[in-house]
Queue: 2 jobs
Job 1
Amino acid sequence: MNFALSDEQEFLKEAARGTLARVKTVAAAREALDGAALPDLWPAAVEAGWPGLLVSDANGGAELSALEAMIVFEELGRVLASVPLLGHLPATFLLDRGGPAEVVAALAAGAERAAYVPARPPTDLGEGWTVEPRIGITRAPAPSFADGRVTGTVSWVPDAPGADHLAVVLDDGRAALVAAADATIEPATVYDVTRSLGHVELDGAPATPLDLGERDTASAWYIAQALIGAEAIGAIEVALEVSVAYAKERHTFGRAIGSYQAVKHELVEMLRGLDNARSLMYYAGWAAQDKPDEFALAASALRLAAGKALDHAARTQISVHGGIGATWEHDAPLYFRRAQLARRLLGGTAGAADRVAGELLTAARAEAA
Amino acid sequence: MDLNDTPELADYRARVRAWLEEHKHEAPASRGDDDASVAARRAWQRRLAEDRLAAVTWPAEYGGAGLGPLQQVVVNQEIGRAGVPGIFDIIGVGMLGPTLIAHGSEDQKQRFLGPMLTADEVWCQLFSEPAAGSDLAGVQTRARRQEDGSWRLSGQKVWTTNAQHAAFGLLLARTNPDVPKHKGLTMFVVPMDADGVAVRPLRQISGEAHFNEVFLDDVRLEPGSEVGPVDGGWGVGLTTLMFERVTIGLGGEGFGWRADRFAHALLDDEACTRDPETRHRFGAIATEFLALRFTGYRMLTSLQRGQIPGAEGALAKVTTIRAAIAAGDLICDVLGPAGLSDKRFGELVSDMPGLKSAGGTEEILRNMVGERVLGLPPEPRLDKGIPFSELRAKEREAVA
């Protein structure tokens, strides 16, 4: 029994923090609100070996697990770093298992980039493989494959703009590789400018079917859920640090505001959310490796806990700082924007809650039968 | 991340499992509070103690197994798996015994630990009072030293589990009111059959009485009844509270509130398992229970590395109660009015409002975590440095 990060994982975390400290990413995020270009962090990511994190050794990758990817995402989340790995890593997970070796090698080395075009796995209520609609909550069927071509529309795809390859999950739970040049990708970045999004239109795009099954395409979905959860953990951590520091130095009525229970208890609630989410991150990391049957449950629980906790943390950070926390003078609005968009992507935290229920109900039905 | 047993631990687990397999027919069927059930539960504790499965972390010289927290968890898990009750006197063996081991005299250890372990003598914890709970150092029960070195004890204690079964209580009393309140307290061993001790059950919302009030009317205590130094009782009490956190932490899912159990309850009405709102609520509750389980493994890893569990464990208690309240609420919404009297869940609903204040109110736990973990400043206090005997006047002055 050892439910903590290993020395190697602690080192990876420190190294990631060091890499990201070289660029003022939070300041860049603020300037980007006014239209400035974001710094290109891809070369730094390549130097750190992140693009090949989930790719097997044989294909030129580091062959690490979902937990290591989450550790990197926690650090990305701390400083709102815009690195297109939310699209790239699940895509490499799929292509490493069933794609052409030369493409995978280029992706692992970071010479080329891929985006995962996600579809949500079927639920216990009988829905099939579905994708995000552009507006509303009614999910649409995933793209379909026929005669070597893929047709369908997927909205709000992370990191699609600028990708070279698309790993498209299909309505039958399989997946296909499409050259980005054969798709129409409409940039769709909204609200949180550090998050690159695109609407992907596939109109009979030539495609190579990947040699893998539903289990792998489902795993890709849950890896994405886990990464978005881990990223939220990093953001909560910073929101808490900044809020606690301010609550110690800001005085009203002759004492620090952090001494008032009304403020203190909200800060402790941020810590509670953070701590619970971190335990679930370890659970998801452990399940990915040692308990694959529970990975869907663990990753969905992480996504939900971290998404809710970040929403609370981002709001509390603003209220602890008073009015200034709601202005562009402060970083708090950047974390608030991050929270609001993140919790609505990739099925949303509501979808994750439903999945947790569905997984547990399915297990209970099987036991009762 | 590794939740697997080491070979040594796997071996220990196998031995515990085999023991339970062989002896589980001796375990009591009921976990009830009636005399016959309690007698059977005490006999079962004795059986566990004889084979060193009752006080796994106590030193061997006092009848324990001299092992670590991980082995204790293995025993708890295997007892849960076998579907048999654990020891009867969790408060004695888990919290008060370790306090005696840490602070008691050698005579006290020799006299009390053996019968405590075998449940021949059950113990209770006499700390809280009607006017001293969150602010425990405000206890008013007074112990006065007599010329012959004996003590006279008067006052009232409350929330006392097992007082009706107990042979002894560990009691925190004021021995010097003329110093600030933390500095004039002493810990005592009180025989529950002494003249002047009266126990009265306190019924709760469910109708059950899990707690008692204990009245102390000029009770005589033998010389040498104090545990630790006179006027040094606060430090002794902190030891007990530390072991309380460990016991609750290692007990983990001992309450039986697990996400999967609630999933089974929802199947009582299959239609509700398709209702989006029910699913959403259940998903959120289950996520909190899952977080608790894996927070437990993180705490255990720290314990195993020799770190003392800190205030963070308090957050686990907050999450437990919040999730259990939400779960009881959901189950009763699904089952309808019948749920409130359902043996499986009715008590969950009824017990939660009180448990929110047990083992530290949510508010006091949040203060503790805010101050000790986040380093936030405390609220200004009116009692700092003030002799206990002057506090009442000071409080009245502040209100006026």
Job 2
Amino acid sequence: MYRKQQIIAFITLVMVVLSIWKLYPPFDIKDTDGNVIDKGKIKLGLDLQGGMYLKLSIDADKLPPNVKLEEAVSRALEILRNRVDALGVAEPLIQREGEQFIVIQLPGIKNPERALDIIGKTAQLQFKLVNERYKVTDMIDAAGNTVADKIPPEVEILESKDGDRMVIDKNSILTGAELVDAKVEMGQYGGPVVSFKLSPEGGKKFAEITGDNVGKRLAIILDDKIYSAPVIKTRISGGSGIIEGSFTLDESKDLALVLRAGALPAPVKIINKYIIGPSLGADAIKAGKKSIMIGALIVVIFMMFYYRFSGFIADIALIFNLLFVLGVMSALNATLTLPGIAGLTLTLGIAVDANVLILERIREELRTGKTIRAAIDAGYNRALWTIIDSHVTSLITAAILFQFGTGTIRGFAVTLFWGLVISLFTAYFITQTIFDIRKQYNKLSI
Amino acid sequence: MFEIIKNPKLNFIGARKITYVLSLFLVLNGLWSVYKVATGKAAMGLDFTGGTTIQAKFTKAVKVDDIRNIMLKNNFQQTVIQKIGEENDKTFLIRVGSRDLSGENASGRLKDMLKKETGDDSMTVLEENEIGPMVSGQLKQKALLAVFWALVGILIYIWIRFQFKFAVAATIATLHDVLAVLGFMVLFNKEIDLLVITSLLTIAGYSLTDTVVVFDRIRENMRHILKTSFFDLVNISINEVLSRTIITSFTTFSVAVSLFLFGGNVLHTFSLALVIGIVVGTYSSDFLASPLIVDWEQWEEKQKHMAR
């Protein structure tokens, strides 16, 4: 073998080894109970494994006056990250997009409702005193709706979880900012409660307020909803307290989680929500696999039939192509989506074109009477730039699709792009090397 | 050697009077589709309209009309209800426009409403999608930009590799292909969503590949074959690469058909567009782009002649 062939053979071998190493096992290996023993190396998109995608925007209007949007988004990102981490999703994605958007992806999440709840909560905790001087009934009309003019400026009307309304002093005595910890405990009546701990300054303030207002009710308010409003029996100096309400265990856990992670600087709005169940994901994988296998079969059989052994060589290049593309995707931690599988399938059709160009050229050269060696060389030489030109145009569209596309479409762009790039190597160099080796046999099955 | 066509000598350029007319029809249909899309008269996917979609699987026997009645009862005007899956799957795709339903947890509320009204508490939701107007607006913009930049990129690349008139002819052919396929999609009343735009761009890339192969041969022959008219030279070139054209179209077509038949309903419209696009793309390289160059060249010759 000549130098060039040796180099190519070596590179091919290295790539095969690397690909197999990077790709084994491609998908999760589960034991008989369905538990994952060995994680799959190919990252599956939401449309293939199920999960949730959210795009959030921070409501700039509801920001406190001296806070900039940029900061608020960064802070929200951190807080949401903490909340999401506690959900226990295998590979969550939380990213900033542009100036005011946050994207969250939770692949494989089992309970999207709960995740939505946790993410959507602003979690603004406030302690305010219930105002005994005024009555709600003085501020509503005949239909039971509140009349804005009848509400004195220093109070507001808030609802409890059960729908009862109370008159509350507008002024917050304490906020969640002074909270340092929150956890779930069993309350005296057997139900779960959330106990919280305040910072030293918070604790001092708390002691003062409770001391001054024994006998009054303290409303514990989360996101403008009254969770409970217990009577202050004595001065509370421990710097801790309990929030009780009629919680389920899950609700209390979530509340504690959200209090610990901190309040979002402003309410978030979900502007794009996509939840896909795992069954559709499984269907998609099945469909994807079937279509690519049948597509591959058609191409492989046809090539062997039309170009005989040379066609078989082209088929080998195709198989290498597929293996390397998946290897590269695994190495780049790229996500495989259903359009991505379509992209791989398409690549099969387009990549084989390079071989067709070469083989047709060789046939033409043979018809003009060249020797086998000369025909093969001429074929490869003349076809090279045509192959490059034709691949580049598709590469341009793949690049643009990647730039402007969303998640699933990017998946398509990625497989198309790498499929084409790698096919330049496999269709041209690998097959050329094999032909070079066979040149010495002086007959050509084409 | 097994050959599909031995030594073809078809007169591609001669057929151009007919093919120009055919292409014109395709382009007009395409432009009309663009108009329909722009004015909202064409079926558009959720990506571009915004709104809420859920794929609900019922456990009780529910019919499309039942769901439609529920929607009307609750004052939802812009709804689209589709039964999907097998006969007894009881699975429906229900879509509600953003004017009827928007805001906090729209899909959740839709779910609850359906459960309540059908009395089917075990109804499961296989997939839900909520797209706010801000997002759908962004997606529309991105789609247009993508198409624009793809065409620009292509024009520039061909200009660099070939002469200007080749670049223009190739761009016209590509634009023709995109419009033709879009036209068919709208004609068949398929929903235009992001995946369809993706397929249009892919077809643009593929069609160009095909066109480039022909142009490449034309350019090569321009260097070697000196005594023939340009008309004949282009014809010869197309015939020389005909084998390759047919085979590559066949393989890519088969692959696209496989996607269409087996790829499931997510890829349905996408793969249909690809199937049509591959046919149109192959057609345009031989019957549109090449004749355009011949006519341009002949027009240039006439101009030179008249200037003497």
